[in-house]
Amino acid sequence: MKKEQKRKILFYGILAGALLLFAACAAHLAPYDPYEQNLELSLLPPSAAHWMGTDRYGRDLFSRILSGVRVSIFSALLVVAASALIGTLAGIFSGWLEGKTDTVLMQISDIFLAFPGMVFAIAFSGVLQSGMTGAVVSLILVSWPKYARLARNRVLALKHMPFIAAARLTGNGTWKMIRRHILPNLAGQTIVTAVLDIGTMMLEIAGLSFLGLGAEAPSAEWGAMMSNGRSMLQTAPWVILAPGLAIFLTVLVCNLLGEAVRKTVDQG
Amino acid sequence: MKKYLLKRLLRLIPVFLGVTILAFLLTGLSSVDAVDLKESSSGGVMSEAEKEAMREELGLNEPKAVQYLQWLKNALRGDFGESYVSGKPVLVSFCEKLPATIALAALALAMTVCLSFPLGILSAKYQNTWADRSISLFCFAGNSFPGFFTALLLLYFFSLKWNLFPVLSMGKGWKSCVLPAATLAVSMTAKYTRQVRSAVLAELEQEYVAGARARGLSENRILFGNVLKSVLLRMVTLLFLSAGSLLGGTAIVETIFMWNGVGKMAVDAVSMHDIPVIQAYLVWMAAIYLLLHLIADLLMGALDPRAKLEGMR
């Protein structure tokens, strides 16, 4: 069983790595310039010259999808990394110090948890009107509490265990104890949550862009591309299909990887 | 129970105040001046003096804290001000549009229950068979599928190709509700089926199930007679939690199908910088969500007194 899990992680890890590689060298792989407009080639169906067809302005969809990998993956990774870092730090503080700090920090996290789904992200990034930055910041604001709760509860449970008391007796400082004893015990759950979060964040970023609150018009972000292609659903469905499938497959790979990591950590 | 309820309600107060502060702070983030916006939406031209008078009237020259308290006082009385764009009281338009969103969410919820209960139970009963695996696969795919892609695919096939449902929603009877609700139901079913499956599986491992088996009761009798009965309340609790997140996910679907609910209202308000409407949307959605969570918590407490004790601390 364990071996099978490891193989699964390796497999999905390689898939995810391939996506990252795509993201890194999209510019060299793309057969055309993703931003070059040529109205004579407008809305061509998929063919040998244009694998996924062309959009309204005659831009090659395959090249645009390739350069969109970068936006989707990097922004999702940024959101997850930042919220995991901020949340975990806040959670450790909260759980270690307890008392007033704990009450205040948890109260703040409760406030951000009080907004369902994308409600806060829509309002915040909408008012901010700063494109992708606004979308990323608003999603970080909504998702750090999850990590804070996780870290806090774990720290509270660990803090009173005998091995922490033993570590304290042998004269370890607070910071050293957190680093040596708390963090390693916290890492597994946090990593699982973070990896599972990547796919979700990708979907939310694409959703915000779809609403016009994320990436802006000429950008090859997948959600924005779908939003721009909406009116051509009947005449040129490939304009929607290509970015839609790209989002689906990328998120699927991330979720499969997350699920494999979760199973391994749960068993280990 | 009463004491518990009171304690939970008391704890909601600071959270709710925090929500109002956040909602209010949004005004400060906006780069568009409220008075300029009013001027352009009314179509008239105002002199600087008139604008200044209007600022004074709206209280925009007061310090932020004073503005907030004034705003909060009005908001608690249900007055969220008037829309910068339409000039109508915000609460009125919100209340006009809320039923449409609730109807949409309710239909999506009903579809979800009808789909995910049988699927989840089937999946648990035939664990690790091809049926379970294919249901799991569907759930996994559904979780990775962007809602707006589902919506556009449904539109393409059911409206444009086969002409079964109208493309735009409002005012075309029950048929108009089906596609947007189905969009929401697809992603919710994907999540909820997994929850039903694991709840049923966990219950099947209880000792009384082994006892019932030993007494020779048929598997179906155990599943439908005992197990489902005890899982039901937990499922309802989870459903309340999902209903909350459902309300937060309607904005995109409402925009695509031109469904005239609060989600579309918020997206429209965002594009026009109509701050009072956005504030009301934030505060009200949080209030509804907190309320649904409270109900779920109370149900959980009724289910398992230990959870209640946890909440008392």
From TrEMBL, chain B:
It is found in: Cell membrane. One of its GO terms (cellular component) is plasma membrane. It comes from the Bacteria. The chain crosses the membrane at residues 98-122, 134-158, 173-190, 231-258, 278-303. InterPro entries: BPD_transp_1_N (IPR045621), MetI-like (IPR000515), MetI-like_sf (IPR035906). Gene3D superfamilies: MetI-like. It is a multi-pass membrane protein. Residues 98-300 form the ABC transmembrane type-1 domain. One of its GO terms (biological process) is transmembrane transport. Signal peptide: none annotated. Pfam families: BPD_transp_1 (PF00528), BPD_transp_1_N (PF19300). Keywords: Cell membrane, Membrane, Transmembrane, Transmembrane helix, Transport. Belongs to the binding-protein-dependent transport system permease family. This is ABC transporter permease.
